[in-house]
Amino acid sequence: MTCDVEDYFQVSAFAPHIERASWPTRECRVEANIERILALMADGNVKATFFTLGWIAERYPAMVRRIVDAGHELASHGYGHLRASDQNLVEFTQDITSSKKLLEDIGGQQVRGYRAPSFSIGRANLWALDALLAAGYRYSSSIYPVAHDHYGMPEAPRFAFYPNGVDGLLEVPITTVKLGQRNLPAGGGGYFRLFPYALSRYLMRRVNDEDHESAIFYFHPWELDPDQPRPEGVDLKSRFRHYVNLGRTENRIKALTRDFAWDRMDRIFLDNAQARVAP
């Protein structure tokens, strides 16, 4: 179970409509939403991994400490939600290094995991995996093996693997189900809100029962917040993707906590590694 800790105005699809310079003046709702999520996780006896933006952690250090104190894993989502694919090696290294140190200083625990904003590591910037390893990370969850207009590397392995050999970084993709020649997203995000819950549950159970693999689920705090402010000028496709079924997300995640057993990424994949070396 994973949560990407960012606020509604920081999503990549809104970047053309919301200037970064305006972020400090925006109404932040992440702290209240995280409190709801922590209560939900506690009720379901779930431990999760929280991939957290440094920008958020810097402003809400007490919230970060509550995540850690509740027994969850603290991991990095970079500092300011810049796509890895929009940075060069020097910029990316600075981003992942500074955000790791910031989170460790605030949370008081080692940060071993990283997820690139918008799953922005793919065939064109696989050098980012070596940079993450050099910066002290142990695993990444940044390559999504799907075809998508904003991200994706559909030819990548569907389950945890070592792209550069067993001495390199472990990559843990979001869950997909093979349908013909395509990988169908089955691990959260807008697809989880769009599809009926029964379909998402079926797909994840299929991964457990037929592939004998752990399912990786992800969501964002703003997905539990149908009353969030709505910026003007956002195109129809982005509005649909962002707002569809926000009012149903919390109950669906509650159902996930009843229907499956969940744990932190580090415990499942670092302590019980089942990854294979990529061909």
Question: What's this entry about, in short?
Answer:
This protein has 279 residues and is of the alpha/beta class. It is built from ten helices and eleven strands.
How do the strands and helices of this protein lay out in sequence?
Blueprint: E1 2-5, H1 30-43, E2 49-52, H2 54-59, H3 61-69, E3 73-76, H4 89-107, E4 113-114, H5 127-134, E5 139-140, E6 161-162, E7 170-171, E8 176-179, E9 182-185, H6 190-194, H7 197-211, E10 218-219, H8 236-243, H9 246-259, H10 265-270, E11 276-277
Quickly give the structural class: alpha/beta
Q: Over the alpha carbons, how many angstroms does the gyration radius reach?
A: 17 Å
**Strands, count:** 11
Strand composition percent: 5-15%
With strands numbered from the N-terminus, the spatial order across the biggest sheet is 3-2-1-10
Mean pLDDT: 94
Describe it for me?
By secondary structure, the chain is α/β, with parallel strands linked by helices. Helix content is 37%, strand content 11%. The protein contains 10 helices and 11 strands. The strands form 4 sheets. It has a 4-stranded parallel beta sheet with strand order 3-2-1-10. A 3-stranded parallel beta sheet has the order 4-5-7. α4 (89-107) runs parallel beside α5. It starts with a strand and ends with a strand.
